[in-house]
Amino acid sequence: MSVRIDETDRKILIEMQRDASQSLDDIARAVGSSKTPVWNRIRKMKEAGIIGQQTVVLDPEALGFEACFFVLIRTSEHEAEWQKDFLRAIRARPEVLEAHRLAGDIDYILKVRVRNARAYDKFYQALISEVRVHNVTALLSMEEIKSTTMLPLEA
């Protein structure tokens, strides 16, 4: 479902992406409106699915999750049952922050956050015990240069 948003909606979304914990008064002030119309717009955007779950962004390294791996998976299995088992397995693993099915030589890429290499190996062993994969390549991120959830709404 495509929902049309106007410039005020866009400003509200930019403010909420920047800091969703700010008060309704602060958002209204930032977008040049009053509280009730802003609240109504936010409610409508939530109902339309534009605004989803609101969460807190945590610092993984501050919490001891120092290793980020990008896991490239190739499979020779393309049956629906294998895919169902694979999706169930990765959705059940809290270490998997993102999972994408790809076009090209690699079938899937996972972003996996763990405390260290030993923890990654435990994740890997558990995954391959649940589903058969043809090839797995793990790439350790040496440095996170940019990470954001903010969409470029100002365009």
From TrEMBL:
It comes from Seohaeicola zhoushanensis. PROSITE patterns: HTH_ASNC_1 (PS00519), HTH_ASNC_2 (PS50956). Residues 5-66 form the HTH asnC-type domain. This is ArsR family transcriptional regulator. GO terms for molecular function: sequence-specific DNA binding. GO terms for biological process: regulation of DNA-templated transcription; response to amino acid. Gene3D superfamilies: 3.30.70.920, Winged helix-like DNA-binding domain superfamily/Winged helix DNA-binding domain. It comes from the Bacteria. SMART domains: HTH_ASNC (SM00344). GO terms for cellular component: cytosol. Keywords: DNA-binding, Transcription, Transcription regulation.
